[in-house]
Predict the 3D structure of the following.
Amino acid sequence: MSNATRTEKDSLGTREIPAEVYWGIQTLRAMENYPISGMRAHPALIRAIGMVKRAAAEANQSLGLVDDKRAKAIIAAATEVHEGKWDTQFMVDVFQAGAGVSFHMNSNEVIANRATEILGGKLGDYLIVHPNDHVNYGQSTNDVFPTSMRVATLLNLEGLYPVMEGLVTALDAKGKEFHDIMKSGRTHMQDAVPMRLGQEFAAYAGAIRRSLADIRNASESLRELGLGGSAVGTGINTHPDYRAKAVANLARISGLPLTPVDDMRYAMQSNFCMARISGALRNLALEVIRISTDLRLLSSGPNTGFAEIYLPALQPGSSIMPGKINPVIPELAAMVSFQVIGNDQAVALAVQAGQLELNVMMPTMTYSVLQSITIMGNMLRQFTDKCVAGITANSARCDFYAQSTVSLATALNPYIGYAKAAEIVKESVATGDSIIKIARAKNLLSEQEIAEILDPASMTEPQYPKEAAKRREEITGQ
C-alpha cells in the first residue's frame, strides 16, 4: 500500500483515507473504534449483503428511483461483492457498534467506490455514486442487516447439510457392517443385556438424521424477510412496490425460496428465527458430544479399557508415553461442540436483548451462528472421513463381553422368575462364574433351553418366550 491518501468528509469532520482502498471514512472510524478481536465478517455475510444491495438496486432501477447509469454500476459492483471479489475490503471487526451499522456502511462505501470506478471516476468521488444517497436508497441498516444475516445463515447451511448427510451414511454403513457382532449393552455404565454393535451405530445414525431434520425445519423461519421495512418497519422512504420487488430479486439472485414477512415490524423487533436455528445447532452439538464420548469409551484401552472398537490411528498421542494413540477426532468433535453450545448462549442473550423497534445485538448473533455452522461442518467432515469411516470392530472382545454380562440373566425372568434370576446374578458376581455356567449347575432348565434362552443373539430383537409362563410355574410354583 502506498502512502498516498484521499480526503473524505462525514458529519463528524474530515479524515485522510489510503488512496487505493475501496472503503471510506465511516469504515475508518469503525476500524479505530472497534479493534476487538481481529476477526472480520464471515464470507457468507459479505456474499449476502452483496446480494441484498444488488436486489435493492435492481428494484430501485425498475421503479425509476435511481437512474439507469448509476443503478447499473451499483448492480455490477454489488455483484462483484457477492462473488467474493472484494472480501479484503471489509475491514470492520465482528464485534462492533449495535445493529451492524459499521459493517453496513463498509458495504455501502465499497460498492459506491467500485461503482464510481466503473463509471470512470476516482475512488472517494461520491458525487458520482454516493454510499447513502444511491447505494443505500430506500434502505436502512435496520432492514438490510437482519435480511443479510438471515440470507447468510441460509447460504452457510447449504454447506452443512451434505456433510451431515455424509455422516448419517457412514454411521448407517457401520450399522450394517457390524450387524452380526454381539456385545454387551451398558446402562448406568454397568453391564446390561446383549445387543448388536451394529444396532449401536444405527442408533447414532438415527440421532444425526433427526438433528438434520430439526435444523432444516428451524431454517424455514429465516426465509421470511423484512427488507423494505426501512428504519422502524414502517417502510418510510420506500416505494410501495419496492419491498415485493426487492425480495423477489433477492430470491432470484440467491437461489433461495425467500418471501416478504407478513409484518415488517415483527421482523425488525424479533430475532426468534436466529434463536431457533442456533438452538437446533446446539441440539446437534449435544448429540455429537454424546456420540463422540461413546466412541472414546468403546475404543478405550487398548488393554485396560473396553476396546470393543478400533479408531483410525492418526498421530502419536503422547510426548512421553511411546506408542500411545489417542482418540483425537472424537476429542475434536467434543471441543467444537462445546464452542457451538457457548455460541448458542451468546445468541440467546442477544436475541432477548432487543428493545422496542430494533434488536441492536445482531452482529454478535450473526457471528455466533455463522461460526457455529462453519466449525460444525468442518468438524463433522473430519469426524466422518477420519474417524467413523475407518472404525473397525474388535469382534473377540465384543463377544467376550456379550457372553460375560450378568444381565444375560434377564432372559431367564420369564422362565424362572425375577427372584431366582437375581440369585444367579448375585452368585455370578461373587464367584466370577458365567450366568450360563451357574444356570446349568442349578439344573433349572434343560441344556436345550439354556442354549436357546441364553443365546445373546436371540436377545437383540423382540421375541415371545414360548411356554415361558408354564415353565416358570413348574420351576417357581407361581
Observations:
- The chain has a mean pLDDT of 94.
- The chain has three domains: 5-137, 158-228+269-395, 405-476.
